[in-house]
Amino acid sequence: MRWIVLKFGGTSVSRRHRWENIGALMRARRQEGARVLTVVSALSGVTDALKALIALHGDPAAMTAAAEALIERHLEFARELDVAPEVLNERVAELRRLVGDVRAAAGGHAWQAELQAQGELWSSTLGAHFLASLGLPVQWLDARDFLTSREQPLQTEWARYQSAICEPRPSAAVREELTGRGALFLTQGFIARHPGGDSVILGRGGSDTSASYFGALLGAERVEIWTDVPGMFSANPKQVPDARLLRRLDYDEAQEIATTGAKVLHPRAIGPVREVRVPLWIKDTERPELAGTQIAGEAAGGAPSVKAISMRSGITLVSMESIGMWQQVGFLADVFACFKQHGLSVDLIGSAETNVTVSLDPSDNLLDAGTLDALCRDLARVCRVRVIAPCAAVTLVGRGMRGMMHRLSEILAEIGARRVHLVSQSSNNLNLTFVIDAADADGVVPALHAHLVRAGLTGADGDPVFGPSWREIVAPRAAPPPAWWESQRPALRTLAEAATPVYVYAASVVRERASDLRALRAVDRRWYALKANPHAGVLRALAAQGFGMECVSQGELEHVRAVLPELPAERILFTPNFAARREYAAAFALGARVTIDNLTILQRWGELLAGREILLRLDLGRGLGHHDKVRTGGERSKFGIGLSDLDAALAASAACGAEVVGLHAHLGSGILDVAHWKAVYAELAALAERIPSVRVLDIGGGLGVPHERGETPLAMAELDAALAEVKAMYPRFELWIEPGRYLVAESGVLLARVTQVKHKAGVNFVGVDAGMHTLLRPALYEAFHEIANLSRIDAPAEGRWQVVGPICESGDVLGRDRALPAPQEDEILLVAHAGAYGAAMASRYNLREAVREVWADEL
Amino acid sequence: MTSRPTATTFRLTEASYADGEVRLGYAFDEGATMVERIRFPGAPAAVPSGREAAFARALALLHGIAGVSYWKALVPERIVVDGEPFDPALAALLDEVWLHGLGEFAHANGLDLRGRIRFPHADQSAPAATALGLQRRALVPIGGGKDSLVSIETLKRAEEPVAVVWIGRSDLIRACAQATGQPLLNIEREIAPELFELNRRGAWNGHIPVTAINSAILVLAALLYGYDEIVFSNEASASAGNLVVGELDINHQWSKGLRFEALFAGYVSEAIAPDLRYYSLLRPFSELAVTERFAALTRYHPLFSSCNRNFRILGERPSSRWCGECPKCRFVFLALAPFMSKPALLAIFGRNLLDEPEQMEGFDALLEFGAVKPFECVGEGRESRAALLALSARADWREDALVRRFVDEVLPRIDAGGLELEPLLRPAGEHRVPERLWASLGLRPEVPPRYSRGEGGASGAG
Fold this sequence. Notes:
The complex is a heterodimer. Helix content of chain A is 33%, strand content 22%. Chain A is built from 29 helices and 35 strands. In chain A, strands 3-4-2-1-7-10-11-9 form an 8-stranded mixed β-sheet, with helices on both faces. In chain A, strands 19, 29, 30, 31, 32, 33, 34 and 35 form an 8-stranded mixed β-sheet that branches. Chain B has 2 domains: 9-280, Rossmann fold (3-Layer(aba) Sandwich), CATH 3.40.50; 287-424, no CATH class. Chain B has helices at 52-66, 68-74, 88-101, 103-109, 146-157, 171-179, 193-200, 210-226, 258-272, 287-295, 327-336, 342-349, 360-366, 381-392, 401-410, 421-425, 438-441, and strands spanning 9-18, 21-28, 34-39, 78-81, 138-141, 162-167, 184-190, 229-232, 243-245, 248-250, 277-280. Chain B has a 9-stranded mixed β-sheet, sandwiched between helices. In chain B, strands 9-10 form a two-stranded antiparallel sheet. In chain B, helix 1 packs antiparallel against helix 8, helix 3 runs antiparallel to helix 9 (258-272) and helix 14 crosses helix 15 (401-410).
């Protein structure tokens, strides 16, 4: 006989319609031919209320009042369920008895456990009667009759009663007994019975663990944990909306993910089913159609991959430096005995000949004043102790981690730009953990996850492990509208006939993006960062839309003057980095606004800056490796004035008679969530408030490009609202933005002609007359650009192709593994999203001819 | 840059109240009036009857004090009051508040304002004020920092009826205020936009006595809504100067000091309402005594900020509340450290400022070790020294870079006597706290001498 165990948590049992849902699921499983045992938690908040009641144990009157409130809560819920209140008589009597129990005065562990066990007994009693009223022949079971706790070595009284452990094995006797009684059962999570007969509770995550125990006891076909999220994800979806649902995990991986951060399932719940190889599924009550996460014995197959990235904060490292005793027998044992004595559990360990460093999780005990001091005092007798905190532990989980090292270079570089205090890799090869400085932890998980996606480590669509992303689950994204070029094939082919390679820019797309930005009402001024694409057509179109021009060199300044002679100088912003003094002089002479990003020039070029209005570009320290302490690698950003130099910069400005009218910070590109923009704006405003002359805040560019793979477009309305919120708090400041790529990326396509086709060792290459000299981004940043065969756009793909250029560099690849109809010589390939940093970065490397550009006003 | 604008006369042109809004008008020479607006949400449309005369004087008090922000832009030599002349006591108070309240401003801009600030006044003193029968409840201003939260918790424990009030928009303050569980009042203040324009044109700028302005705003609030106490949370150390230039003791937080408190309270009770009390609850305490109390108020730890950067948007990360690099961040970090577990403290700030060697100079300034106490609302040098000495005895702290440096380099060169924490935690010095609250604060009746006018407040706690 097949058994399925279902488990529902507090929120799932607190409302009538949720119980109807439980009934429907039990019925459906029964119809699949299985017998069903359902495990439920107490109503939401009841376990906490029972704990609060216990805390009142010296005060019988207060305890009685609290108990009566709980009774009333359940009676009210009985009314909501249309269940006769009498069914609770026994439970009411029991609670009153426990409150009046002689043991209550002392508040011992046995009494506490029995009291805390009540919540599940109440909810399951109500639920069983309600389900019966729906016509389901549900039998109520007392879980304590089936789950017996096991004494553990050195178990404390607290653990014996309030963190009890059972070790159920599949039992034919239990199966037979239950089979004889019926097919549908309802019982309690969280509770069990001590061999001596007392009630015990299972501690945190107890209801999940109960379900797992029953799954093991019954040798169930599977255990389904029904919760309010779709399953486990490749990262915390709240931090990383692009995190992918993990469809399949083996027990070890799931355990590791649950332990290192995921909150969806308590790690204790995995052990019991792992022992007996019962699969455990995580299912979403709100989205029952989703498969969720299935945890089972065998791996899902496929190549080794990083399944998840998680982070735990509040980590404290204790570093113990040898004073020559390392080799001594028992030294480490003494050291660890200290930790044990102070009730601190060590997690990670790194050791060298003269140092042992361990990590401590943020337990209540650690946060108590005095614990750490006392530990360090004891340790200091045998070694030199140093506390390194606050830290965060970033863990990559996936089977076969050591076999993936070569694919993790980007991830290691990302981590390496931070202060890393400890690295740990388990010998079971399941994880790789970096303990980094908490101050550097902002954004690390989203950044690492983005690297995983870019490196293809999260699998393609239809991957057996990596399911849809959180973002897709909560708001399935509409298929992107067809790209503008798909309907312009004849025109583009004609343009390509003339000569290739050629960039074609569609004017309508530039104007459309410009009006997106004009719709941001919180923004007072918009500048186009013309380094992205200085083509005259682009400049004219954007100037006509009211954009100012942001230049980074004298060459760009002169270009703007030549293309837009009518543009008032105050609509030119000069924001260079390490430009020569004469370039600044030229900008001032022109009357442009100038941004200074170096303290030294404020101090040394006084005569140039005297009487000028300037903006200061700041490094808010969000860029990686900003901190002086970064010595482990990573470059410091060459942009901006460090915050610690701001006062000096203001003093230097005042000394030379320059007036600081604005502050500017650029986030870099690719940091795309609305909250981040808001945070930077708010941070800049908080800084600027103390500088009376400041009237402008420039939050730079970096807006995500819509419909581009690997990029999340910003929800413009949401962005506007977030910016407006900050603006309302700091109405004094004008808000400027200066996007580049956002405005032009989509508008441009690169058309290239097929030169040769090659098949080598099973790999297909298609050569075109464009390459890294035409479009550098794929080689420079591993940027992804969609590639289509313009000559046969609707033909089916025939194999995967490496699209390469003619440059004598192995990195001259425009696209890898692209599914294309087999290209023929002289056919035209189209490289999409090439309007930004395409022609602008092109070169004549290998003395290839300069690329042509066409501004297509009619497109 | 254009040349600095100038003026010879500063005029207080008008002050009015209607429909919950106060308008304060100022002008330079014959220029247009600049209007500052202060909105009191839910206030009666007209001044409650019986309080009109008191309100008019309170409005004049605010008009005079708030004028400092505008006057200081051009520091003209003459001050003119267009409407009803100020009474002599108000003029005298304003002369003193402006001069001392602008002490840091004058120092930073290299100005000598002595003799420059002379408020004109009527010959006759105003008649003494009469009691208004205000309701027995207190307005407690909150700034998002530790001090007001300690006050509010103390008053809650004493079962005092309070409302938590703040001026201006700030999500961060709102979050702290909400966490107190007390009634809330958010007063809006809108500075005349012309002032920003003047600043753009190169007007003088710098620190102004904002606590004095807020105090005067709260007097109006007390009359409008009916509160008989305004309870600030300034400590003993607020009375200590930062440096002495000539005969002038310059104190960044002069309007948080005892001298201002007594002066202001005296004027309020004599000229506005004898039953409206104005005092600072934390006056008998050192900063350390306050941080010790705050260390136990863990519910506020993830919410509060004392950082100089005026964070108003509530962010989850410590770095959205603490810049970690200003004197206030350093001081609060240091002052909380002796009273908390290290991991819990580091969780507040998200970093360990005492293990950042580049912060050495900043901490030296707090220690008054070869540097002037910063122009900030921070504790006294001996408080910082005592806190660091306490940390140097803690095994979990003593290997941190700046704790080590304190032991190795600073301690041998300073007088380490009298640096125990314990004496600094005891209430001491002058204060004006009502007797009914002494027990809640642990004040012993025989210790605190009551403040009497004429005693210098600048020397601070003893």
